[in-house]
Amino acid sequence: MRGHPLAGSDVTVADVERHPWPDPVDPARFATMKVRADRFVYEEKKAYILGRNAAGILEIALWMRGFEDFFCDLHLNPPLAEAILEKVTEIKMRYWQRALETVGENVMIVSEADDIATQRSLLISPEMYERYVAARHRRLFEHIKKTARARVYIFYHSCGAVKDMIPQLIDEGIEILNPVQVSAGGMDTRALKREFGRDITFWGGGVDTQRVLPFGTPEEVKAEVKRRIEDLAPGGGFVFNTVHNVQGDVPPRNYMAMWEALLEYGLY
């Protein structure tokens, strides 16, 4: 990230309105969307996941303003914080309106994201989240479900220690949680399944990509995969996936160990 376009102590709500925000309904965004969805569903017989146009509401606000400035705004300049969050929400809602109308009935899962946590804790307090973000998430998810031509499931991505916010996220309307960062604070997979397994699907958490997959032995990778499947799979509601993307430093033997363990323990 090279800079923050709305950073600085002299930025006003008017500056937010004047900023040249991207056009969420630019026809180029949707030129091949319907064709790809139809191919997935009718030719390849797969479920189609419709992707978001950008990062999350809180994330984009932090990037546009800069972390330090935006965190200060939450306390010292709420109108400015609200203006940025609202602008991002409006852009995302306009995108989803056009995207869902374009695809029609062929979408099953809608992918949204908003990184709200660090490795150890939340980025903002639950009180701040409730004040500034929760209602906008809820409005966005309700808009998606209302606009969709068929029943869709909300796939929500947030890295980090999100356990304390999972009840709130469920209340907002998410049905799938990703990436289930098992190395973050409080993200014990057995406890997550016990507490929330009746309400959401865990999409991820299949193997730790921070330490075990890149630096462990093949035996440790297999043991990790076995443990996560045993924790998350019982009763369904689990889609095996790594915790975020597999990086280039992962030894091929460890990748194969993960795959072999998945085939051995993960078919049910």
Q: What name is given to the CATH topology of the largest domain?
A: TIM Barrel
Tally of contiguous helical segments: 11
DSSP helix fraction: 40-55%
Rg over C-alpha atoms, rounded to the nearest angstrom: 20 Å
| Count of extended strands | 6
Order of helices and strands: HHEHHHEHEHEHEHHEH
Mean pLDDT over all positions: 96
Q: Which strand order do you get reading across the main beta sheet?
A: 1-2-3-4-5-6
What's the number of domains? 2
Which second-level CATH architecture of the largest domain applies? Alpha-Beta Barrel
What CATH first level of the largest domain would be assigned? Alpha Beta
Proportion of residues in extended strands = 5-15%
Low-confidence stretches: none
The largest sheet is: 6 strands, parallel
| End-to-end separation | 43 Å
The secondary-structure class comes to alpha/beta
